[in-house]
Design goal:
A two-stranded antiparallel ribbon has the order 1-2. Helix 3 crosses helix 6 and helix 4 packs parallel to helix 7 (138-161). The protein is elongated. The protein has helices at 3-6, 11-18, 22-53, 60-87, 90-118, 122-136, 138-161, and strands spanning 164-166, 172-174. The chain contains seven helices and two strands. Residues 158-179 are annotated as: Disordered. Pfam families: FTR1 (PF03239).
Length: 179
């Protein structure tokens, strides 16, 4: 007798047993969110501390405007991903996942290259960027905060979209990352 035919377990139940449970998914997703939130908080702290120490409290509102816009962007990306994953099927879903994966590669690659260059002097670089933004005007201050925080905020929804989920069929599927 063949060993494969002797097994009483079907393939779908084997896949279910080997799949991650909801607790490990929530824990992993929570850690990603916590890490990115802490990184964003560090960036905002550096910007705010620079403004306070240089007695430019008037520019704080522009930093908070940029932070608020980055949070809105993060929520929008999350909702678009969720809407897309739950409503688009077939070839369109495959095409969107493919394009989104390419975008993710570009974002991650540029972030790795940027971090490699800027990790040692990130605080100093942010301070220099803020000094230049203050000379340029309030919109530059808001955009600096927006991009510094938005970069951290968009990553968690993209990471979360690539986690396996139990579909209505009862099977686990590994959805492609949407960012």
């Amino acid at each position: 007798m063949s060993m494969i035919t002797d097994l009483p377990v079907s393939m779908s139940s084997t896949t279910l047993a080997a799949s991650p449970n909801i607790t490990s998914q929530l824990f992993g997703s929570g850690l990603i969110g916590l890490r990115e939130g802490l990184e964003a908080a560090i960036v905002v702290s550096i910007l705010v501390a620079f403004l306070v120490k240089s007695d430019r409290r008037d520019a704080l509102r522009w930093v908070w405007l940029g932070v608020g816009a980055a949070i809105a962007l993060t929520l929008t990306v999350f909702l678009v991903i969720q809407f897309g994953e739950n409503t688009i099927t077939g070839l369109a879903a495959e095409a969107i996942a493919g394009v989104a994966s390419l975008i993710a590669v570009v974002i991650v690659t540029t972030m790795v290259l940027w971090m490699r260059r800027a990790a040692a002097g990130m605080s100093g670089e942010l301070r220099n960027d803020m000094a230049q933004a203050l000379e340029t005007g309030p919109l530059a201050v808001a955009l600096l905060a927006f991009f510094a925080v938005g970069r951290e905020g968009v990553e968690p929804p993209c990471s979360w979209s690539g986690t396996p989920r139990r579909r209505r069929t009862g099977r686990w599927s590994d959805s492609s990352s949407a960012c």
